[in-house]
Amino acid sequence: EVYLGGNKIGDMGAQSVANLLQRNQIITDLGIDENSVSDAGAKSLLDALSHNSTLQTLKINGNNIQTEGIVDGINEVLKVNRENARKKLLEEHPEYEMSKIKKEVKKKKVRRSRDGTNKSSSSSREKDRKSSSSNGDRQDKDKPATDAQITIAEETLADNFLKDRKKSLEEEKSTTLMSKFKNGLGLGSGGGDGKKKKEEGLKSGRDGSFC
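-> structure tokens emitted (211 positions)
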């Protein structure tokens, strides 16, 4: 790792660094930030990276680079170098890949275990909630009636009694009127008296006074 930041090397210094990178196959991290490097110096670095396969990180922030295409090109080359370095490492040390796989498997197991715990906890909370609600309902049923509830019940009974009484009086009145009507027509018992009552009933009916 080499860090040259804040030394104001400018484009000429960047060109010298580019010449070094074309031959160097050791440096993996290089920092030349805050060095007044412009597009010309950045272009020299990009061209040099086409001959370099070891550099993986290049810090160039804080310079005067205006062309985004140059920065994007540098990032693409560094990305390829990092991928090639990773493949080379795994070829030389395959145990690293197995270690990585084991870590991923362990993470998945831990995640599944946490999910199972969360589900179990959620189910337990739901059961507790239902049990609490059921107990509350039973307590409400066993709880003595309040004065307000008793008053409402008494008023309901009184209303029902008045309705029944009103209905009974209406039935009695209807029966009485029907009986008078029949007697006025002479439909009751008694032979001649019945005939007489019938005549009197018809007379009363004409007068409209039998009701």
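Residues 46 and 73 are 7 Å apart (CA to CA).
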